[in-house]
Design goal:
By secondary structure, the protein is an alpha+beta fold. Helices cover 42% and strands 11% of the residues. The chain is built from two helices and two strands. The model has no long low-confidence stretch (mean pLDDT 77).
Length: 55
């Protein structure tokens, strides 16, 4: 019974924290954005300047 409770708690914590994590490989400017790298453009992830943080 204890194993099930621990597993449920671990799952809730994992799901709850993963939704608030945003992957980002570059630095952000004072506006919370940046220009896409050539690699990201090739993958179709972005086309130019974009934001990661809302003002």
């Amino acid at each position: 019974m204890k194993k099930i409770i621990v597993m449920i708690i671990a799952l809730v914590v994992l799901v709850g924290t993963s939704s608030s994590a945003y992957a980002h490989s570059g630095r952000l400017d004072k506006n919370g954005g940046h220009k896409c790298s050539a690699k990201s453009k090739q993958k179709g992830l972005c086309t130019g300047y974009h934001y990661h943080k809302k003002k």
